[in-house]
Specification:
By secondary structure, the chain is mainly alpha-helical. The protein has seven helices and no strands. The radius of gyration is 21 Å and the shape is elongated.
C-alpha cells in the first residue's frame, strides 16, 4: 500500500496539535503533584519503558482535552477578534462585514453551486474538494493548520499555567512581572494561532477557486 503525502501530514497535525501540548501539560501536572504532594516525588516506574508509555498516554489524553477546550473557546474568540480585523475593509465600511473577504465569498458561491444550502462550512467543503481532486495542494494547507492548532493548544496550556502557577511565577520574578510575562506569551500564542488559521483558510479558498476555474479536460 502506497503512502500519500496527506497520510504523513495527518500524523504531523496530531503531533503538533495534541502530543506536544499534551506532553507539556503532563509535565506541569507532574510538577504540581510533586510540589503539593511530596510523597509523589518518586513515582513508580519513572524512567522505565512503562513510565514513558504512561507519559505518552497522558500526553495524548491531555492534548486532546487542550485541543477540545481551544476549539470551543478560542475559535469563537478568533471569530470575534482576528477574523474581524482581517476581514474588515477599513476605508470603505465603518463596520466589519465578512463579505469583505473576497476569497471567502467566491469559494462560498462555488460551494453553494454544488451543494446548495448546506450546513457544511466553506472551509470544510474546500478541504474535502482539494483532498479529492488536488491532494498536492493540501500539503501547505495542512502544515499551516497543524501549526495553527499547535499554538491554539499552547495558548490553553499557558492559561492553565497562569491559573495554576501564576502565584509562584510572580513570587520568583517579582510583583507584576510574572503576570505580565504570562499575559504577553498568551497574547502572542493566540495571535500566532489566529494568523496561521487565517492563512490556512485563505490558502484553501484560493486553491479551490483555482481548481474550479480550470477548464474541464
Amino acid at each position: 500500500m502506497s503512502t500519500k503525502p496527506a497520510d504523513f501530514f495527518i500524523g504531523v497535525i496530531d503531533f503538533f496539535a495534541i502530543i506536544l501540548p499534551g506532553a507539556l501539560l503532563s509535565y506541569l501536572v507532574l510538577v504540581a503533584l510533586r510540589q503539593y504532594h511530596p510523597p509523589l516525588a518518586d513515582l513508580p516506574g519513572e524512567g522505565t519503558a512503562a513510565g514513558w508509555v504512561a507519559f505518552a498516554l497522558s500526553s495524548y489524553l491531555l492534548g486532546h482535552f487542550a485541543s477540545l477546550i481551544g476549539a470551543f473557546f478560542l475559535d469563537a474568540l478568533y471569530a470575534l477578534t482576528y477574523l474581524k480585523f482581517r476581514s474588515r475593509t477599513w476605508r470603505r465600511r465603518p463596520l466589519w462585514n465578512r463579505l469583505d473577504d473576497q476569497l471567502y465569498v467566491q469559494a462560498g458561491a462555488l460551494k453553494e453551486a454544488e451543494l446548495g444550502t448546506s450546513n457544511v462550512t466553506t472551509y470544510k467543503w474546500a478541504r474535502m474538494t482539494l483532498q479529492s481532486h488536488a491532494a498536492g495542494a493540501m500539503q501547505e494547507i495542512d502544515r499551516l493548520e497543524a501549526d495553527s492548532k499547535f499554538f491554539r493548544s499552547v495558548t490553553v496550556v499557558l492559561v492553565i499555567v497562569a491559573l495554576a502557577f501564576g502565584g509562584s511565577i510572580t513570587t520568583h520574578l517579582g510583583s507584576g512581572w510574572g503576570s505580565l510575562l504570562l499575559a504577553i506569551f498568551v497574547y502572542l500564542c493566540f495571535w500566532r494561532f489566529s494568523n496561521l488559521r487565517w492563512k490556512a483558510t485563505e490558502a484553501a479558498y484560493l486553491a479551490v477557486i483555482v481548481l474550479k476555474l480550470q477548464p474541464a479536460k
